[in-house]
Design goal:
By secondary structure, this protein is of the alpha+beta class. It has one helix and 13 strands, in the order αβββββββββββββ. About 20% of the residues are buried. The structure holds FE2/S2 (inorganic) cluster.
Length: about 140
């Protein structure tokens, strides 16, 4: 193999690796849970965060037919959660979750797991909802 061909092949391999890692990270975000509405709360079982082998998921994405956007719920401890509306505060595109951050596919804004803007063009934090845990259920108040 000639040097030029070798460099070209390595370049394509690197690009393929980068693409694959971003796809796999995106797959990690497929922790979709269908919530139920109880009064003004979106409710999911606490064990929605269970991941087998007593591991715990960092986050889940909760959907309901009555909601225009899903809600991403990050778990920091058994009693500390953050629920973020997955609507970009720039122009309203639905966000995607990548581990500890949410990204906007429209213009690239990024938010952390507390909903704070990390990269624009968005300049406003995400909408958050109060979360409480009772009777092994996570209640996300939509009021
Ligand atoms: S709509 Fe999200 S960055 Fe523009």
């Amino acid at each position: 193999m000639e040097r030029k061909e070798f460099v070209k092949t390595c370049g394509f391999a690197c690009l393929g690796g980068l693409f694959l890692s971003s796809v796999l990270e995106g797959c990690a975000g497929s922790k979709m849970i269908a919530g139920t509405i109880v009064n003004a709360d979106l409710v999911v079982p606490e064990n929605s965060f269970a991941e087998g082998n007593s591991a715990v998921k960092k986050y889940i994405v909760v959907q309901h037919d009555s909601l225009k956007y899903p809600v991403c719920v990050y778990r920091f401890s058994a009693t500390e959660y953050t629920a973020l509306l997955m609507r970009c505060t720039h122009q309203g595109a639905e966000l995607q979750v990548f581990g500890d951050r949410l990204e906007c596919p429209a213009h690239g804004s990024q938010f952390d797991n507390k909903g704070q803007v990390k990269n624009g063009p968005a300049d406003t934090s995400l909408r958050t909802f109060p979360v409480i845990v009772k009777n092994n259920q996570i209640h996300i108040s939509l009021k």
